[in-house]
Design a protein that fits this description.
Elements (H helix, E strand, L loop, with lengths): L10 H4 L7 H4 L1 H10 L6 E2 L2 E2 L2 E2 L2 H26 L5 H27 L12 H6 L10 E2 L4 E2 L4 E4 L4 E4 L3 E3 L4 E3 L4 H31 L10 H35 L3 H6 L11 H8 L16 H8 L7 E2 L2
Antiparallel strand pairs: 1-2, 3-10, 4-5, 6-7, 8-9
């Protein structure tokens, strides 16, 4: 048997325990380590609610919600409700608020979804013997979280876990972007870019309209307050639109080339079967192309989420 500080090649083909279902199959071991360790969290059976208690990430995630809600306030109460055209307010309000709800839902799904964490502490002698390694096969043990790392997994120093197909750790969603939540992160960047562009368009239209008449007739707020709110909204929208549009394009490019950002930066040569273009998109979003790809609520089990949330205890993370 090979030593535990080598890499297992083609492990996902030879060992189902290290495939995408390993979190479930080794869940009892992972949960046992979590309950007894310093990063304990609430468990229901072998399942737990994933949440990273990182102070920087929680502040950034809170700022994201605050800025989106601020944009909703300005768009609804400064621009749309005082507008003279009922249909203009109704159509734009329905569009903007729907996109905002989808953006926040995508943010929550990204933040509260296990990104593909490898069970912590599974690199035990008994577990490695159960793999029944063949001659020539080697495994790699992560010294930081004491787990056997599947191919394309990387250790995140913030999540303190090895993450399958880890793309990067994003403080704005307070989570890693990995195999199981990349879809929601792509939707989050797309919807934020859309509401930012919409807010910019509405702001330009509002400025153009108010120039022709008295500012008092355009808004229920004083002219000075209205201008300050609109200027801050425009700055926010420009920054968010630039950032999320670039990130959305980067994510789509990575998916279509089946290459994570970490793999690209490290210039790692692919040793896996690559899913290119539409195959990569189907692998991330699931099924054939359809409007369901844009639905962040797909697969959401509210009852299980409520059970996981009930009675939750403190800890640095609530995870698998």
């Amino acid at each position: 048997m090979q030593s535990s500080n080598h890499r297992l090649r083609d492990m996902e083909q030879h060992h189902p325990l290290l495939s995408a279902g390993a979190d479930v199959e080794a869940g009892s071991l992972g949960a046992g380590v979590m309950v007894g360790g310093p990063h304990s969290g609430h468990t229901v059976g072998n399942r737990t609610l994933w949440f990273i208690q990182d102070s920087c990430g929680m502040v950034c995630a809170g700022m994201t919600w605050f800025l989106v809600l601020y944009a909703e306030f300005v768009v609804n109460f400064v621009m749309l409700l005082p507008a003279k055209s009922f249909w203009y307010s109704l159509l734009n309000g329905a569009t903007f608020n729907s996109l905002a709800v989808l953006a926040l839902a995508s943010h929550l799904r990204t933040m509260l979804t296990d990104p593909g964490a490898v069970p912590k502490g599974n690199a035990t002698k008994e577990y490695m013997e159960s793999l029944q390694l063949k001659p020539g096969e080697v495994i790699y043990k992560c010294p930081k979280c004491c787990s056997i790392k599947p191919e394309r997994a990387h250790h995140c120093s913030i999540c303190k876990r090895c993450i399958r197909k880890m793309d990067h750790h994003c403080p704005w969603v307070n989570n890693c972007v990995g195999e199981k939540n990349q879809r929601y992160f792509v939707l989050f960047t797309m919807y934020i870019a859309l509401i930012s562009a919409h807010a910019l368009g509405l702001s330009g239209m509002h400025f153009f309209t108010c120039i022709k008449v008295q500012w008092n007739e355009c808004s229920d707020f004083s002219p000075g307050v209205s201008v300050l709110l609109l200027i801050f909204l425009c700055l926010e929208a420009i920054l968010f639109l630039t950032f999320t549009a670039v990130m959305f394009g980067t994510q789509i490019h990575s998916i279509c080339n089946d290459e994570t950002e970490i793999e690209r930066l490290k210039n790692e040569k692919p040793t896996w079967e690559r899913h290119m273009r539409w195959d990569g998109m189907r692998a991330v979003f699931g099924g054939p192309p359809s409007l369901l790809w844009c639905n962040p609520f797909m697969g959401l089990q509210l009852r299980r989420l409520l059970l996981l949330s009930h009675g939750r205890r403190g800890g640095s993370e609530f995870s698998v």
